[in-house]
Design brief:
Elements (H helix, E strand, L loop, with lengths): L1 H9 L8 H12 L23 E8 L3 E2 L9 H16 L8 E5 L10 H9 L7 E4 L5 H14 L5 E8 L10 H12 L3 H9 L22 H11 L4 H20 L9 E2 L5 E2 L10 H5 L21 E11 H6 L6 E10 L9 H13 L8 E4 L4 H11 L2 H7 L20 H4 L6 H16 L3 E8 L3 E9 L3
Parallel strand pairs: 3-4, 3-5, 10-11
Antiparallel strand pairs: 1-8, 1-9, 2-8, 5-8, 6-7, 9-12, 11-12
Helix pairs in contact: 1-8, 2-9, 3-4, 6-7, 8-13
Amino acid sequence: MASMLMNSLRCCPPVNPAWVVQYATRSLSTSVQLHAQVQTKSKKTLAKPGVKNVVLVEGVRTPFLLSGTTYADLMPHDLARAALQGLLHKTSLPKDAVDYIIYGTVIQEVKTSNVAREASLGAGFSDKIPSHTVTMACISSNVAMTTGVGLITSGQCDTIVAGGVEFMSDVPIRHSRKMRKTMLALNRAKTLGQRLSLIGSIRMAHLTPELPAVAEFSTAETMGHSADRLAAAFGVTRLEQDEFALRSHTLAKQAQDAGLLSDVISFKVPGRDMVAKDNGIRPSSMEQLAKLKPAFIKPHGTVTAANSSFLTDGASAVLIMSEEKALAMGYKPKAYLRDFVFVSQDPKDQLLLGPTYGTPKVLARAGLTMDDIDVFEFHEAFAGQIMANLKALDSDWFAQTYMGRKAKVGAPAMEKFNLWGGSLSLGHPFGATGCRLVTTVAHRLQKEGGQYGLVAACAAGGQGHAMVIEAYPQ
């Protein structure tokens, strides 16, 4: 498909290389307006007759830190516990008032495989509250939230805590399969002779460890390679990618300095300092970014360390409830969680196009258009991935050829897009990002006076997610 895309897109009108520069500048110039409170627009509500309204009451996250830094000596459940405790503190929620707890994660620590349960017990929640852990790559906490939505709308629960955690500072490293088989056989051996025979069979090659890789099992290709090929297929230049990465870091720094990242809680790391903010936000310059060499496809690739999201440690948590329950408990919700979809496509050539497939589907379910959306928050796995999705959304040819649509849905207006930074700058703990996206949309809707927000994200396996969020009346 990549070659078809390249050939077909060459026939489309050429893209101005300065396109990203123009919209980045426009978006940056509008960021100063984020401090002004705007009156919420008057639009129809997306409430459905006979369906419970599900509301986001609060969302928090630990600071997202580069892996191998301040969190390095912790375990995943430590971060998840900190997020849960932060949620309890911020909401004054009684610890026995929750019906169910769901957490998302990707690379599991074998000692705490059900990290939701271990973290909830550590945070002091009642041991009577069921907890389970889900995984769907980078949209794992999206699944946690939507599972909670389903439990509420079905009448099973009224109060759900959902979240996600990822800890890249310490990932499981296994012995080789041959060594594992030998060790298991040793454990079953009954005589000294059997043990000595097994020990004598061990060779140096058996001692080579199996290291985890951010790669597709079905294709054996790393996500960075996929991002590079996708960028090439859509004609996304190195300049465009670096400009978008610079935009993300610059906007994130502005939001951090302005105190807009209010979902971040302070966390006293045992034996270390208090951590109060993300440490991966690093505005640079185009000159510095241009010096970096390709990280995956060498020497001609366009994806670099600077225009890719970095390995991150962090956890998030949200409190979602039926609207009736939230109001009965005295809470003022932040937003309604409305329609959502999950999508899946070819993991070889369309691995990172989840937003392109999910966005038109969720808009159709909600009866909205792109123009109706006031706030967009897309997961930034790579700058090239974001740019490819924007071009795909704005391509009639792609819509007709691959999506069975008569016309394109259109690209988001950049003055509405990821205005407080994104995964490229804030960080991307795989299992935790979904909750950050949803909470950011709710906060931006409040700050900017919008009514509808849209979250979209890609995930490994060629999967994706999109959700419409509606501001709660102020």
